[in-house]
Amino acid sequence: MIHDSPFAALGNTLDTGEVESQVAEIVRAFAPGHDLARIGAAFSLLDRAFDGELPGYQKLKTLYHNRTHTNEVVLCSARMLHGLHLAGQGVDGDHIDAALIGALMHDIGYLMSDEEASGTGAQFTASHVMRGVEFSRQHLHDIPPDLLESITKVIMLTDHRQHPDWVKFDNLQQQRAAYATATADLIGQMANREYLERVLLLYFEFEEAQMGGFADIHDLLEKTTAFYRMTKGRLDQDLHGMSVNLARHFDAQQGADRNFYQESIDRNLDYLDRVVKTEREHRLERLKRGGVVEKVLKIKDVG
């Protein structure tokens, strides 16, 4: 089915069960014999961890880096793998697992242990990637050592402050899996229908982490277009322009040779341009999706 709205084509990332089902359907489309048990176990582990049901850990508290973000990344990663397969650049079963389990675990480092009493986890922004690597090494039981090594490298490549060369890959398949997930991490969030609203929540994470250099929430909104330009450079150059393969997936799945992620990002940026041209005292009136502004106003008076 072809969607008029690119946002609609991306699907519902609020429902984890629906996302897991979509990921399984996509993988079966290009790897019909693939055993989905490891991916399913990773979804279950993440459910328990984020819901506060994993012994020794609190539930996830970060406002922006939440389950919805993880859902959009793993779904985009699956679509990327499908597109790469259609382009003749597919990966084998172990690296399908590495890309998708790495996507699921890439932000688990924001999760706090019971001993970490204060904060939301956003204070670990600078270290969350390596915390996620350590969590994965401790909790991904029954994963063979070589596959676990690939998963940790997928997670490491989602540290977008670093050039990809900081991760040393063992083979092309491992690199391809990591690049797919790192690309999905950036594209998935910026294409979300509520991205502009959720940027407001990201401000509070940056504030808690004492990083970002933004004077206030409006300053972050005003600098988001420049952030995208920088991000596009990373996507096109550092990450080898892998996102073009998403159009192959949508052509095969929905009969539309369109990159709905890029179309959604373009719509968000066009609307952002109109928002930042609005007087500051009226900007939040234009950001109505998902009840995010109401949540923001409860956190802090942003003017």
Description:
The protein is mainly α and 303 residues long. It has one domain (6-298): Catalytic domain of cyclic nucleotide phosphodiesterase 4b2b (Orthogonal Bundle). It is 62% helix and 0% strand. The protein has 14 helices and no strands. The protein has helices at residues 6-10, 16-30, 37-50, 67-86, 93-105, 128-139, 145-157, 172-191, 195-209, 217-238, 246-254, 260-276, 280-283, 292-299. α4 packs across α11 (246-254), α5 (93-105) runs parallel beside α8 and α6 (128-139) runs antiparallel to α7. It is globular, with a radius of gyration of 19 Å. It starts with 5 loop residues before the first helix and ends with a helix. The relative contact order is 0.14. The mean pLDDT is 95.
Radius of gyration computed on alpha carbons: 19 Å
Oligomeric composition of the shown chains: single chain
Please outline the major beta sheet: none
Order of helices and strands: HHHHHHHHHHHHHH
CATH top level assignment: Mainly Alpha
CATH architecture: Orthogonal Bundle
Shape: globular
* Helical percentage: 55-70%
How many structural domains in the coordinates? 1
User: Any idea of the CATH topology?
Assistant: Catalytic domain of cyclic nucleotide phosphodiesterase 4b2b
Helices and strands: which structural class? mainly alpha
Termini distance? 43 Å
**Would you identify the regions where 5 or more consecutive residues have pLDDT less than 50?**
none
Q: Which range does the strand content fall in?
A: under 5%
Number of strands: 0
Overall pLDDT: 95
Alpha plus pi helix count? 14
